Amino acid sequence: MMRVLHLGKYYPPVPGGVEYFLADLLSALERQGIATGALVHEVGVASTAGASPNDVGPTVYHVPTLGRFFYVPISPAYLRWLNRCILEFRPDVLHLHLPNVSVFTALLSRRAQALPWVVHWHADVVRSRVDRRLAFAYHFYRPLEQRLLATSAAVIATSPPYLQSSDALRPWRQRCTTIPLGLDASRLKAPGARETTDAERLWGRTGLRVLSIGRLTYYKGHDILIQAMGMLPDARAIIVGTGDQASRLNALIRKYGLQDKVTLWGDATPAALAALLASCDVFCLPSIERTEAFGLVLLEAMHFAKPLVVSDIPGSGTGWVVRQGGNGLLTNPGDASSVASALRQLGENPARRVALGRQGQEALETSFGIDAIAERVADIYETVLRTHPQNLQGT
């Protein structure tokens, strides 16, 4: 049996699109007959390593951390844990999910260098126009990033536009393959009666119900959605997530007098999220930079047959997802009037909302199901192992 160890940043219940995708992918690979493990950061100093009951399912190792600095988990013991995991789990392939500074320690591990590497390129470290510190930090990050890519056997990009626009991947395009993110729809349970009642109470008796989900961080564009809501007399928005922009966004809501129209919900349980997704009219992703590379949450909204209003970020996969599904309207990044116009169009045409939602559901089944995505990833592993001078350790 093939064995693959994934190096990720975090793992559920830590929320995030890459985190949920990683968990979905590992389970789908297990169904393909591949033994999977993951080395991720613990949120805090505790450390655990465990498997599913009866050793069925992914094995997840959590490296203790000392907190975060500049979006980066601080894990001095990561190299030791990496060597330990390779020794215990005996992988045939390392699957590295980037961006993640900690995975650069693989360049220092003889055990890691003895294995073939598949790099999953979730996003560039973008030279942000909003957070200028990233441009400075990238000067130190890029040499390690390029050395890691040079060592890799294969690279997976999540959409054709992202691959074509990535300066970092340009020297390595001959080893790149495009495989989109996928969703395990069975993970999204139908909301219960209590959560449904709570969601209805939260929406209130309003017109268009607009939902947005994501970390409250600089590139998500939630301020753009808030400004757009000020242009819509009969609409209400709920923004789910936590992050460093929460105070600024709350101040913006007060500044525009939108306390009755926009709610920052904070964290929500999976059941509460399902109820909000099921009861909204439109899902909006107003991100403004290529750091938003794909948007797994778009697939979750598609599962609930919701039309999308999404920023068409140049060089990002967000617009590509909508074009593939034919299930939403695209807006100009950073343009509140453009977002308001798209929401207004859908608010005035309920039949169109239903039709777009159905198209999204169909696209999810045909193009973004996690089992089909896992099958393509497994093919990458097979190809890599055929060209790498080693025998399967797990057989």
TrEMBL record:
InterPro entries assigned: Glyco_trans_1, Glyco_trans_4-like_N, Glycosyltransferase_grp1
Pfam families assigned: Glyco_trans_4_4, Glycos_transf_1
Domain Glycosyltransferase subfamily 4-like N-terminal positions: 16-182
Entry protein name: Glycosyltransferase
GO function term, MF aspect, one: glycosyltransferase activity
Stored Gene3D superfamilies: Glycogen Phosphorylase B (3.40.50.2000)
Keyword line: Transferase
Domain spans labelled Glycosyl transferase family: 202-362
Organism in which the protein naturally occurs: Thiohalocapsa marina
Domain of life: Bacteria
